[in-house]
Amino acid sequence: MSTTPPPAIFFTDWDGTVTLEDSNDYLTDNLGMGYPKRKIINDKILEGSLSFRDGFREMLESIPTPFNECIEYLLKNVKLDPGFKEFYNYCEARKIPIIVVSSGMTPIISALLTKLVGEEAVSKIQILSNDVRVDDNGKNWEIIFKHPDSHFGHDKSKSITEYLEAHGFSAAQNQDLDGLPSMPKLFYAGDGISDASSAEKLEEISKSLEKNDNNDKSDEDTDSLLFAKSGRDLIKFCVRENVAFTEFNDFKDILSKLKSIVDDGVPVKNFVENSKVKANEEVKETTK
Ligand SMILES: [Mg+2]
Questions:
Q1: Which domains does the chain have, with CATH numbers?
Q2: How confident is the model at residue 171 (pLDDT cuts 50, 70, 90)?
């Protein structure tokens, strides 16, 4: 590879992760069907009797407000994570790409990003999300899912894979001509069930990198880290499925850990809070 790869790539969920409120829940609760009815749909999604895609569409269809008014309403009410701006500035300085991977809608995310972070951020932060079709008079609108065949509507793991491949990073070929690792460290921050497929994708990429490395990897570092927001559904998923994660309250926590890893060379595995990575290493130790 002729160009120097970035030290890391940071994928992040948007709603409830970069913003404090989930904009889609906020619209549904305040302008649409309201919280009690949304809760019934949410429970069906959680127990698996309804797909995220169909439940989400039903919530959005209950909102009678024109799309532009929805955006105005969100711009007035949705707040940014208190540490995100500093995190963004740090990533800019270190040339770490930030990619928003969202189950929401691109026009809403762009509008909020412009207002909350700044005009420049929209050109720097790539958004991988669903779109919206708004009709001529602007009154009627509907979500256009990025992956309509996926039960998530937007399969975040597919978007992560596509992004990495489009930028020349492949889990199957993790060394450049000089034998140096070409895959940067991968991070993902999220809070909800729709982030589960991203969490699993990061683990899968890490595992395939380990498999493709010729040398013994047991004393080397993990290649990815999932940041899961305190007290939210993603942590419950990670604990249940034994997916490695580190907890965060806001992007100040994330920035502090990222700085330790990127600037000070602290191993990623030092931040993993559940025992999977450690357990795997013990197995490797005894079978070496
Ligand atoms: Mg979220």
A1: 8-20+80-287 (3.40.50.1000)
A2: low
Are 234 and 197 in contact by the 8 Å Cβ rule? The answer is no
Cα 221 to middle of ligand 1, angstroms: 28
Among 146-155, 172-181, 204-213, 234-243, name the most confident range.
146-155
Q: How far, in Å, from the CA of 20 to the mean position of ligand 1?
A: 9
Beta bridge pairs of residue 247: 228
| Residue found by looking up tokens 């302008």 in the block | 31
Evaluate whether 215 touches 242 at the Cβ level (below 8 Å): no
pTM reported for the whole predicted model: 0.88
Furthest CA-CA distance within the chain: 68
Q: Ligand 1 centroid vs 215 CA: distance in angstroms?
A: 38
Is 164 in contact with 156 (CB distance < 8 Å)?
no
- CB distance 57 to 144 below 8 Å: no
In a 13 Å sphere around the CA of 260, the CA atoms on its Cβ side amount to 12
